[in-house]
Amino acid sequence: MKPIWKGLASAAVIACAGAAQAEIRIAHVYGKTGALEAYAEQSHVGLMLGLEYATDGTMEIDGEPIDVLEFDTQLDPAQGRAALAEAYGDADAHIAVGPVSSGVALAMLPVAQEYERILIVEPAVADSITGENWNRYIFRTGRNSSQDAIANAVALGGENVAVATLAQDYAFGRDGVAAFREALEETGARIEHEEYVPTDTTDFTAAAERIFNAMEDVDAERKFLFIIWAGGGNPMSAINAMDPGRFGVEIATGGNILAALTAYKELPGLEGATYYYYEIPDNPVNDWLVETHMDRYGTPPDFFTAGGMAAGIAVVEAIRKAGGAEDTEALIEAMEGMEWETPKGLMRFRPEDHQALQSMYHFRTEVEEDVPYGIPVLVRELGIDDMDIPIRN
User: Where in this chain does the record put each Leucine-binding protein domain (predicted)?
Assistant: First the structure.
């Protein structure tokens, strides 16, 4: 079955060049090229599926067609800032969605404020996006670092638990560790050591040795190395090969895309919390996503496909509720407190910071011979009311 939206992006480019423009212009500003390209592709497929699902296949809202324009941030903050300005300015986009990288997102936030247009952040994670760097034009459908942290703290925390962390040295990693430390304190667990490395690190020997030295003599019933990582490099497999068990250290991490879950197969029983795995949510939207994605692409939907779909549905619901896409103030009023159904179930934009509150999933990895990755099996769903997500702005 051919996607009905195939070719919309090229049509949008023609429209920008001077042909008649559609009434509703949505810009997807994301890292199409670079280290997070796989995440970006999933996000775009999900966005288009979300628009399709929410419009019952018409790609129209109240009779007005949707134009989707694509802009590549190349994972560069300056390029992301310029691309968003082009989307709002030259292309006159009503709403923008993206980007993938937290560092790029932080550079883009002031542009939304300058142009007084909505930016729906998906899937960048850093708390500061809807925290200290937030402005009223920013909404986020993706989860934030605190949601990751609190869910993982529930999965791993407890009295007499000691944790070391390994994370990438930028906003995603540092915000993630800060939120994780705060969440762990509520459980009685403690972080003993933090390790930060460059985003393109491939040799984890030195970092692992520092972690092992710090944790070797720690007195605790359980000792974890919690890894926060995005993109290539695969620190989990590299460090697992160094036998952390000889220091009494267990590897733990949150969920990830299917390709990254291949490393989880080496660690049956590994626990953590995940944003999405296609077999976990049980609702009609996810049923449609899984069936449609399997039909069109021959694979199940992945981590960021679900997020992109949530953003696409939010766009449609917001425009309908606001009575159109051109009045930004009406859109803000419509979106603050808005609830809508997604592949993960109900989401809600919190009025105070426009962060989407949503379920997370405590999982335990199981291994099946004919599945090439470790399967995140649900232990417990953590719903909106199960997590007290701080307001940080």
Answer: 23-365
Domain ranges of the chain: 8-143+281-357, 146-274+361-386
Q: How far apart are CA 173 and CA 89, in angstroms?
A: 32
- Residue 264: what pLDDT? 93
- Helix 303-322 with 37-54: angle, nearest 10 deg: 40
Locate 79 and state its tokens.
């390029």
Mean pLDDT value across residues 205-215: 97
CATH class of the region 8-143+281-357: alpha beta
Q: 146-274+361-386 sits in which CATH class? A: alpha beta
What is the identity of the amino acid at 110? Answer: P
pLDDT computed for residue 209 by the predictor: 97
The one-character DSSP state at 372 is: S
Query: CA nearest 151: which of 89, 217, 77, 228?
Result: 228
* Structure token pair of residue 162: 């000691």
Per DSSP, helices labelled H in the chain are: 8-16, 37-54, 77-88, 102-115, 145-156, 171-185, 205-215, 235-240, 284-297, 303-322, 328-335
pLDDT score for 16: 41
CA distance 250 to 175: 23
Asked whether the domain spanning 146-274+361-386 has the same topology as the one spanning 8-143+281-357, the reply is yes
pLDDT of 305-320, one tens digit each?
999 999 999 999 999 9
| Residue 140 three-state SS | strand
Quick check: 118 and 136 in contact, CB under 8 A? Answer: no
Q: How far apart are CA 102 and CA 100, in angstroms?
A: 7
205, pLDDT greater than 90 = yes
Mark 10-24 as b/e (b = at least 16 C-beta within 10 Å).
ebbeebbeeeebbbb
Q: Which residue has the tokens 């491939």?
A: 202
15 pLDDT higher than 90: no
- 211 within 8 A of 252, measured Cβ to Cβ: no
